[in-house]
Design a protein that fits this description.
4-stranded antiparallel sheet, Lipocalin, WD repeat, membrane, cytoskeleton, 10-stranded mixed sheet, 11 helices, alpha+beta, cytoplasm
């Protein structure tokens, strides 16, 4: 099961948070000296050495000119006596003097309003209807030109209940809405489809990762949930001796805070691994994700898809693939589709895997929104090879089923069509077809071994009636081992023309 491992760092020196010494996934700052109640901190020194060995600061420095310790205490006092209305990570962009360029009366009540990151002269809003007009949301685009605002487009999204939060995907092609009935709706404007998922946590806070692969949902009581771009939950757990990943991370189990969670914001950049958490009345915290070496420290769409496949979550990986845009990341889409089909074709074919294979190929052959001609021409040939392999598997299974039922004509037709597909693929990629044939041969030998020993010219009786058919197919594949011949000679060409086309040659290249 794929899950995210994280560490919780609290920017506070208060002992009232009651962080346990045995909790090696939660850290806070401490004043100098031993704790006031040593009986309550049995592993104080052990955790001190544990933090310092990993380069974490145990006591903030108070050197001039920063004086971090005094600044931190002053900051905590401000959080207790004032209300924080907005939090964001510091960057190098400076705000210039502001002036009013234009104004416009919106038709609905604005739930969200922000500048477009891709079109700087456009405003993106989410507007809600009146209280008695129903449940929907309008995603609107406004443009500022010549000192006036005018609406370019408006898309109505039907909902099941009143939305309480929203967040736009970094690509600005999807809109995630959190509803009051503890559910999530992801509207994909590119495909024109909506995904609905239940969320045990009231979705009052939403925060997309800058790479757009995952979104974190926060509740007022300090609960966190993580979903991928296909709205499949991603389990989370804090670092511990024995991790217990769960769909909901309850921060109340790791610290005691008087106020609820009121802010979530990811650090900037595609390689961001820190999520800022703001509690009402303090403290300010940072949730740092340990993404690991297999993903290269990244949490992009391609990395999430591959991690799902490593854990055997094919359906979740397919959801990530469906959300990827071929016009922007065509190579990653092709790589993901090939990975899913190869993963499924290595397994025994059944109804569920057959449906998953059809859905994976349908991402390219039957997309909700038509693909551009450039994308089709670029990836048509490599994806057709995956489709031929899938059809070959279907025809092979049809051949065996028809043989068991006594349908000789249907079995022969299925076998002939499978051989035609195999030979057509062999003209383009003989190495891969050779691997497929050897795999089919090994599968046949395993089936014979499981069914019982079979000897030449000795009839055997099997329960399922498949052994004789598979033995005859295995005998029709002849494998010869020959030394490496020099290519381009007339003698070698003449021998190749006279040899049987159904013979598979294994060339010995010598020892290194």
């Amino acid at each position: 099961m794929a899950f995210c491992l994280a560490e919780l760092h609290l920017w506070s020196t208060k002992s009232s948070l009651q962080v346990k010494d045995t909790d090696i996934g939660t850290y806070q700052y401490y004043d100098k000296g031993e704790p006031a109640n040593p009986l309550e901190h049995h592993y104080y020194n052990e955790k001190l050495h544990f933090c310092e060995a990993r380069g974490y600061s145990w006591t903030p420095s108070n050197r001039r000119p920063e004086k971090l310790r005094d600044s931190l205490k002053e900051f905590e006092e401000l959080l207790q006596t004032n209300t924080c209305v907005h939090t964001r990570w510091r960057n190098k962009h400076c705000c210039q003097p502001l002036k009013v360029l234009g104004s416009l009366q919106s038709e609905g009540n604005p739930l969200d309003c922000r500048f477009s990151l891709l079109q700087p002269y456009q405003l993106l809003t989410v507007e809600l209807p009146g209280t008695r007009e129903g449940f929907w949301a309008d995603s609107c685009v406004y443009e500022c030109s010549r000192g006036r605002l005018h609406r370019l487009s408006s898309t109505r999204i039907p909902l099941t209940s009143r939305p309480v939060s929203c967040s736009r995907h970094p690509s600005e092609r999807s809109l995630l809405l959190g509803l009051s009935d503890s559910s999530l709706v992801l509207f994909d404007q590119r495909r024109g489809v909506s995904l609905l998922a239940s969320c045990p946590v009231p979705p009052t806070l939403l925060a997309w990762h800058p790479a757009g692969a995952v979104v974190v949902v926060g509740g007022e009581q300090g609960e966190l949930m993580c979903f991928d771009v296909g709205l499949a939950p991603v389990r989370m757990a804090l670092v511990a001796e024995d991790e217990a990943p769960a769909e909901t991370l309850r921060l109340a189990d790791h610290l005691r805070s008087g106020g609820g969670l009121e802010g979530l914001r990811w650090a900037a950049g595609l390689e961001a691994d820190v999520l800022m958490l703001a509690f009402h009345g303090g403290p300010l915290a940072a949730l740092r994700f340990r993404l690991g070496a297999l993903t290269g420290g990244l949490v992009g769409l391609g990395e999430m898809l591959q991690q799902r496949l490593r854990c055997g979550q094919v359906r979740e990986a397919l959801g990530v693939l469906e959300a990827m845009d071929w016009s922007i990341m065509g190579d990653e889409c092709h790589r993901g589709l090939s990975s899913i089909t190869n993963h499924l074709l290595r397994l025994e074919l059944n109804a569920e895997r057959e449906a998953l294979l059809e859905a994976a190929l349908g991402v390219f052959y039957a997309p909700p929104a038509p693909l551009s001609d450039v994308v089709i021409l670029e990836f048509r040939e490599p994806i057709s090879k995956c489709a031929r392999r899938f059809f070959h598997h279907l025809l092979r299974d049809l051949h065996y089923v028809a043989s068991d039922k006594g349908e000789v004509v249907l079995a022969d037709v299925a076998k002939r069509k499978a051989n035609e597909i195999e030979s057509a693929a062999g003209n383009e990629d003989p190495q891969r077809v050779g691997d497929d044939v050897m795999r089919v041969s090994r599968q046949t030998e395993r089936n014979q071994t499981a069914a019982g020993p079979s000897y030449p010219n000795t009839p055997t009786t099997q329960v399922d009636g498949r052994a004789n058919q598979r033995r005859l197919q295995a005998e029709s594949i002849r494998v010869t081992v020959s030394p490496l011949r020099q290519t381009g000679s007339s003698e070698g060409d003449s021998r190749n023309d006279d040899e049987d086309l159904g013979m598979l040659h294994v060339v010995h290249l010598g020892m290194v």
